[in-house]
Amino acid sequence: IDCDEEKELCTKYKVNAYPAVRLLKRGNEGEVISTRYRGKRTRRAIVSFAKKAYLPPVTHLQLADLKNFKEVDNIVIIAYVQSDQESVLLDFKATASLHHQDFVFGYVTEMPIADAEGLKVPSIVSYKADGDNRILNGPFGVPEIETFLRVVKDDIISEFSERYIETYMSKSKLTAYIFVTNEEDGIALRRTLTSLAKTFQNVITFGLVDAVEYAPMAKSYGLIEDVFPALVVHAPMNDNVFLYKQGKAITAETTDIMLRTILQAKATNGQVFGTEEQDHSSH
User: Fold this and answer.
1) What residues contact 86, with CB distance under 8 A and at least 6 apart?
2) Which of 15, 16, 94, 194 fits 10 for a cystine, CB–CB 3.0-4.6 Å?
3) Do 187 and 229 belong to one domain?
4) Each residue of 267-278: pLDDT tens digit?
């Protein structure tokens, strides 16, 4: 909508800065309800916002629904409960209603489904697009569910922002920067490297960096322009920098070799990993 042409409409929906996104839906009595989007201006984030608005606060799932529902959004929360565990289900539904704009929620009451998933009942599972799934085993109430949601909302590979630069520059840990130019590469590399990020989370901070927005940062680490995705490891304690060979596919195996070599103090400043020679010498 061009707000210069449709001033009255934009005023009606309180649009006073651009670009702006509003989600409009019909209420129970036919009225139009406008919801302001305040998230990131990316396709993935906006689609996620629309899905949460479209779906009910919590969905009762059958076996046929489960596989697709797990993948309907970036984070999907599913409770596995027995049909007679009414208080547990009420607590879950109440929490889901409060956090409907943050997560997609569903629940299962068929015990064969929980058994097939290898889960105790009651339990809650967060299914994440990056594969960092987590489980909350019962018994639990609203406080425990709230704590669980706060934990699963954080990504082990966080999106880099200058606002949190102190986190990435801590001298007590290494920092692994994953530079990407599109969401697809970011999603794929999160899946590839999340397991490693969890393994090394006490000694390495991982960040996903927009290589377009932070092009000067990529250049400062010696990266070649327009050859992305790329991986850089920075050691804030001595300002050493280690590179993954640009143009070569970033794999978990080679990244693991790279990180272990650096942590064992066997790498030299400026060393490039991902070449056959480096892979062989690092074993």
Assistant:
1) none
2) 15
3) yes
4) 999 999 998 655
